[in-house]
Amino acid sequence: MRIGVVGADVPRQVVLACGAVPVRILGSWTGAVSQEATELLGAADAVAARVLDEILSGDHDELAGLVVCNDSMADLRVYYVLRILDERGRVPFPVHLLDAPRGGGAHRRRFVSHQYERLAAFVSGVTGQQVDATSLAEAAAREAKLGQALEAVQGRRRERVLSGTTALTAYRAAAQLSPEDAWERIGELVRSAAEPVELDEPAELAGARVPVYLTGSSHPDATVYAALEAAGAVVVGEDHDAGDAAWIGDAVNAATLEEACAQLADRHTARPPAAARSLSSERTEHLLAETERCGAAGVVALVRDLDDGPVWDLAEYRPALASRDLWLAEQLRVPAGGVQDATAGIIRALQRNVNRKDAL
Amino acid sequence: MTEPRTPAQPRTPQAPAGQRLRSAVAATRHQKEWFQTVRQRAAAGEPIALVNADAPHEVFRALDIPYVVTQWWSSIIAAKQAGPASMDRLAAGGLPDFSLQYDAMPLGEQDLPAEDRPWGGLPAPRFAVAERSGDVTAKIFEQWGNRPGTETFLLSRTGADPVPDRWWELVPHQWEQAFGTERLDLLEGEIQDLIAWLEERTGRTMDYGRLAEIMALGNEQAEWNRRTRDLIATTRPTPVLVNDTMPAVMAPQWQRGTQWAVDAARSLYEETAERVDRQVAVCPGERKRLMWVGRGLWSDLGLYTRFQEEFGAVFVWSMYLAIAADGYLRYGDDPVRALAARFVGITDQLYVPPWSSQWYVKEALTHGVDGVVHLVADDTPGSGFITEALEAEGIPVLEIRANNADQRSSSAARIPERIAEFIRRRV
């Protein structure tokens, strides 16, 4: 049984222990946004509108239920709209809100822990399977094995054997397939990783293999990664929740659901800071650590229009990155249909930065 | 639904042209004078606070920490034409000038030249406190904490779940049912943390008896607003203009928990009742009663009276008095938990469907409106559900998509022309 997930806050072990597979609905960079979705959501990130369009057009009707995370204003709006439409029979499955505020502290941890228990009740209600020590342990083992596969991806990526495009594909498989199917798929991706990335002709950055780190909006698909890497860059890491910051592969040892939820709520506080829910200082600290870990030469910030969280981080990013001699290429307020132009702009900026470095 | 209250006498005197409600004028004047006392206290070395509209102001009142509400201060900055310059200062500091401007504008105002600062400017706050609403508010308030002498405290903003029907009947006493125990537990705990945080920094001690008194004053104020709202709902023709009740309600709202605010709310009621007794009509030939759903059209407040002469159409409702009547009442023995209940879902009541649509329908029916102009907010979800619910009750709705504070946007939307056409064809 498959449970759809909008957003990045779901503790997958809980869903697995309830007998379901969490399937992340990511949306896409491209494609039309319907007038209905625009009017229902108001001014919101186009990716959220595309997610809503997918759901309302029946693309996910095979799901047994849907969990929507309050991990951004756009996703919360998706929940509010779907709650109404669900009552009207417009959605063929029950819809549930998972609300896991960031910021840590005893009160938030307790609230989040209760939210995970409610999540389990929702999924169990759909599957008919209650959580017990055995199902928690089995789910932990399945999730941990998937986590090991993703660690292998990260290792190959650090060795520059695996492209960012392939890594993002691996994360997508992990987020959308059963742990076993994802494990198989990721294995194939890692094994085929020795194949060189094909470059566009003329590849402006060919030979440079500039290692770049991605920040800004999340990347629901590999559109931007593929374009950057075709132009000669290598995406060595990212801080968005469809990539390195995805919460996949994490599991706890617990005898009861309450114990598991409390431990997972602790883990939630240790997750990478999110653009829409964390402070700029936290994000900057994380960015500096990750660019160093990944050996990035610079940072690309691509931010969609109406996804305002990331733009507030840039004021701290700019001096912090400059102090590390890292350049920052920005494309802000990227319109719903503007990803190609924005990516082209980034590639031109990369070229300028590479040339400047060469001249130094 | 209550029955309309109609005057016994056939003759209805018109409110003298241009004569505003005394309570509106007094409230606006008081707010300006009060702001200067805040400046004086800050100049004398007292800590002051900048707080968002959805933060638990009563904590600051009880600790005698003067506070200024971000959105109110932004409205003053904008009214004094200092908005663009303030946003320019933000941009100069590398911050976005296009994102949540009404929350961000006071940050830029801090850096304006002294002579350009409205009313002398907001003194640097010692504390900046907000809920983590949306994706950006926390980051804006984090910026305040980066300024010398200011520290930031952030509270959680949880999603509106559950949403039991008819929230306005539940929230005064049955707020546990309205908002859910877990949401309340979280905010109550965080308010306790905020109190401890402020006590540590000011050396003051919270007097919980005083906090209970402040909560009681807030409830008393809301009860007066209820009486005023109910009186207007049942009076034909309508005795007051919505562009008068807006300032008469909102200035005291930011002074909530004081005797002055209670007295201001009572004055508004008494002045309205006096007009009803004298059978004053703001539109003597009233034939159509209109409701304005959405934020006030600050860029063109004259719009609200523009259809009286030609159509006998008068706006009898805006959300400002109505939410002051229904949105803030919270009774309970534990003042901290009641305070958490006041704020945990304050914006949900107005903006989250189905709560929003249910409430607007209730208000439309009790006010006996003949038509609704719905200024659709693009920063809230499901506006269409509001229109749909009103139309389902047989109330025609005109949807307008425009920015309420931006005159260019409202001009482009041809609002007056479209309302006139709407009245002719559908009301």
Architecture overview:
Chain B: InterPro entries: FldB/FldC_alpha/beta. Chain B: It holds the Pfam family HGD-D. Chain B: Belongs to the FldB/FldC dehydratase alpha/beta subunit family. The complex is a heterodimer of chains A (360) and B (427). With 360 residues, chain A is α/β, with parallel strands linked by helices. Chain A has a domain at 2-129 and 254-269: 3-Layer(aba) Sandwich (Rossmann fold). Helix content of chain A is 51%, strand content 13%. In chain A, the strands form 2 sheets. In chain A, strands 2-1-3-4 form a 4-stranded parallel beta sheet, sandwiched between helices. A 4-stranded parallel beta sheet of chain A has the order 6-5-7-8, sandwiched between helices. In chain A, β3 (65-69), α4 and β4 form a beta-alpha-beta unit. With 427 residues, chain B is α/β, with parallel strands linked by helices. Chain B has one domain (22-426). Chain B has 20 helices and 8 strands. In chain B, α17 runs parallel beside α18 (383-392).
